[in-house]
Request: fold
Amino acid sequence: MSLYVESGGVGRDLVLLHGWAMHSGIWRDVRERLAQHFRLHLVDLPGHGFSSPHGTGPGQGMLEHTIQSIAKILPEDCILCGWSLGGQIAIELAKREQARVKKLALISTTPCFAKRDDWQWGMEAGTLQLFAVNLKRDYKGTLNRFLTLQISGGDDTTAVLARLRKSLFERGKPDEVALEVGLRHLLLSDMRGAIKSIAQPVLLIHGEKDVITHPGAAKWMNEHLPRSELIILNGCGHAPFLSYPDQFVEHMLRLKGSVTR
Reply:
């Protein structure tokens, strides 16, 4: 398994992790401006973009392998930024690699994707299960429906959806097994306990109108992370760096200094 990482820029090391079914090219709207302040490391998750898939079959072990693979390339004294599923991976890495991950940025992230009896800020489990079923029946159509869901509720839906669709297959088709494992993780994961282990400063950036990861989840994390700051972007859906790139970069620059609650 070969993990594709593209590095460039000057300053503090900043590692960027994309979300489900995407690749690191999704950061293009903010990349050049961030690279003026940070040394960027843009990672394609296994089975996405230019990273090869795992050689093993589907299973929870694949996700663990993903986490271990990224841990190997983390620079010393870095800032780790994850979007959506990438944010959950970032949480786990920040918990395990506290000596290297000094600060954390969680973009449109939730500790628990699926709704539960004691968690109202998740998607209906049936919706995630339907995505998994439809992925086998209509791979391309299912991914396009997922893109539409990402921009639902936002103010600039047409332009953002066009950029998402342009990015989706420009590095080839995401590996179907990797997508299946990612969906299974989203359905089963509950990282609320892991949140309590995060001691680093955390910047939370979330869209007010996000229908994939409810802003209530970000507010919950802000309450349970002792060194966190929450930015809610009005009129924004699931991809703040596409909807409001200028504001996104401005807030990310906070990581150059201290992030406190």
About this structure: The longest strand covers residues 38-44. DSSP finds eleven helices and seven strands in the chain. The mean pLDDT is 91. The first helix runs from residue 28 to 35.
